């Protein structure tokens, strides 16, 4: 979950401005859209830890499904990005900003909730974050190669949707994981 969330976040932060510019969005509007991407994560970051600590596994899974489906909708709409109005880019930035914050905070919050000692928490956190950032490091470069050959890229959109689905599925594994 940490790796897929980071992959989505780093790739979007690196390439969303260029993708929007390619689709005729002005620099000022791109700045606002990116600010909304960042701002969308703030309420999630503040509220999610309390929710995760008190919610049942079922409630957590339902929340993860809702977040995953809303983000998949944004990804599917990318197939028509060249004809989408500016409001679509706002939707994409708000949903993906909230989604990346959701899965990032879920990962960080579940480390202490799923471990029996601070030592295990540190071990799990270190392993997960190291592996996650390694996975994420390939995203922007691979997207750049694909964008160069096909800016509206059907392949990139499918990959985006698959990574969103993998992130959502990985969250189910984390939610169901017993304490270690």
UniProtKB/TrEMBL annotation:
It comes from the Bacteria. The keyword Membrane applies. The chain crosses the membrane at residues 30-52, 61-82, 88-109, 130-147, 153-175. InterPro entries: MFS_Cyanate_Porter (IPR052524), MFS_trans_sf (IPR036259). Keywords: Membrane, Transmembrane, Transmembrane helix. This is Putative transporter YycB. It comes from Limosilactobacillus mucosae. The gene is yycB_2.
């Amino acid at each position: 979950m940490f790796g897929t969330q980071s992959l989505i976040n780093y790739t979007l932060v690196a390439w969303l401005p260029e993708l929007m510019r390619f689709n005729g969005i002005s620099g000022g509007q791109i700045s606002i859209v990116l600010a909304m991407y960042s701002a969308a994560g703030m309420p999630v970051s503040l509220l999610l830890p309390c929710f995760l600590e008190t919610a049942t596994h079922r409630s957590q899974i339902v929340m993860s499904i809702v977040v995953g489906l809303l983000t998949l909708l944004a990804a599917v709409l990318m197939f028509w990005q060249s004809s989408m109005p500016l409001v679509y880019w706002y939707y994409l930035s708000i949903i993906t900003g909230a989604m990346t914050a959701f899965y990032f905070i879920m990962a960080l919050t579940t480390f202490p909730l799923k471990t029996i000692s601070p030592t295990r928490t540190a071990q799990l956190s270190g392993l997960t974050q190291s592996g996650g950032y390694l996975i994420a490091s390939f995203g922007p470069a691979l997207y750049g190669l694909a964008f160069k050959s096909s800016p509206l890229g059907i392949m990139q959109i499918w990959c985006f949707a698959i990574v969103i689905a993998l992130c959502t599925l990985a969250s189910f594994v984390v939610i169901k994981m017993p304490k270690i």
